[in-house]
Design a protein that fits this description.
The protein has 370 residues and is α/β, with parallel strands linked by helices. The protein has 15 helices and 11 strands. The strands form 2 sheets. It has a 6-stranded mixed β-sheet, sandwiched between helices. Pfam families: DctP.
């Protein structure tokens, strides 16, 4: 009788544990705007709205999965939801990288976050790519604009020649080469060391990195040339088995919360940038506008690089990348118009727009059910 009671207690404990044993993975630190709201607060809201049926334990700062392993990790069920930076896996996600490399087409982060989310949730070719990689796409994001944050003045096209720039890969690296700089590939976690040790002249990243990666301690100059913004991959990608195991009602909860935190994150990210830049300026960092020659070089690159994007996509097996780019551009233009008519500082208004234009149009009984 005692043995049976122990066995029953173990079974009960196991059931409770499995209900709470859902892992949420992000490789940024918990203080980052991409984690604070979209993962930490998101997990609490989801638990509340599902009456405890979905409880995510948030692992941040790469404590569960390193950046390059997040796609495989969610596919294999190490995480049930994860952030993934798409440029780490160009061979596995060629369509996503085609879209993600259009970062110079429109440098408004809010527009690109909403447009890339709608594309990722609705484009048939992109949906097939997610499925082939064992992931259910939940929603996107966008960093704020990328700026050159340097340990030496870089103000002009002449200044940038030969400079070693930390780039996010893809189109960013090609831009560096286009203007005669040297692209350096390294994760954001190593930017501080690179600038401090002198192996980098500039880190090209969103300016919240002045605080979130402590770059203000090693950056003396920032150039405000808007070198795109990063939105490749996804903010929420779900393990297929997990997604199929939860009820349609709980999938709808996830849809609603992702719509909210898609909006919340964008506002929080820009606030973090403003705070970080102001703090760095108080500590002596100089902020300079690019000269006209540098602006012109970026504009020339944007036009020239589209042919490279298409050629790379074809080499990776993408069928008709021209049509895919045309559809994506149409979504970007659509969101450029929609967001012009809403208060972009109002989280609730932006979330309502994300729901009505994107998430409410998804069928929670069939979406992601492969």
């Amino acid at each position: 009788m005692k043995t049976a009671a122990i066995a029953f207690a173990m079974m009960t404990t196991a059931t409770v544990a499995s209900a709470a044993d859902y892992n949420a993975n992000h490789f940024f630190a918990e203080r980052h705007s991409m984690v604070r709201g979209p993962y930490v607060e998101f997990a609490k809201k989801v638990a509340e709205e599902t009456d405890g049926e979905i409880n995510f334990t948030v692992f941040s700062a790469g404590s569960l999965l390193p950046p390059a392993s997040s796609l495989q990790g969610v596919r294999d069920g190490i995480a049930q939801v994860t952030y993934h930076a798409g440029t780490y896996t160009p061979s596995e996600l060629p369509i996503d990288n085609l879209i993600g490399n259009m970062a110079f087409y429109n440098t408004d982060p809010l527009v690109m976050a909403f447009a890339s989310t709608e594309f990722g949730l609705t484009n048939p070719a992109q949906l097939a790519e997610w499925k082939a990689n064992g992931v259910v796409y939940g929603g996107g994001y966008s960093t704020s604009q990328y700026f050159m944050q340097c340990n030496t003045p870089v103000r002009t096209l002449a200044d940038i020649k030969g400079k070693r720039l930390r780039m996010a890969g893809g189109a960013w690296s090609r831009f560096a080469e286009f203007v005669g700089a040297v692209p350096v590939s390294m994760p954001s976690s190593e930017m501080y060391t690179g600038l401090d040790a002198g192996s980098l002249d500039c880190a090209v990243a969103a300016a919240d990195a002045l605080d979130s990666f402590s770059l203000k301690d090693v950056v003396t100059d920032m150039n405000t040339l808007a070198i795109g913004n990063y939105y490749a991959g996804f903010e929420w990608g779900y393990n297929v088995a997990f997604w199929q195991s939860i009820s349609p009602e709980n999938r709808r909860v996830l849809f609603n919360e992702m719509a909210y935190y898609l909006a919340e994150h964008r506002i929080a990210f820009d606030k973090d940038v403003e705070k970080a830049v102001n703090s760095a300026k108080e500590n002596g960092m100089a902020v300079a506008e690019p000269d006209q020659a540098l602006k012109d070089a970026l504009a020339e690159f944007v036009v020239a690089d589209e042919a490279t994007l298409i050629a790379n996509a074809k080499d990776r097996g993408v069928k008709d990348p021209e049509a895919i780019l045309t559809e994506f551009k149409a979504l970007v233009d659509k969101w450029d118009g929609l967001l012009a008519n809403v208060d972009t500082t109002d989280v609730d208004a932006l979330a309502a727009l994300a729901r009505s234009e994107i998430y409410d149009k998804l069928d929670e009984t069939t979406y992601g059910v492969y």
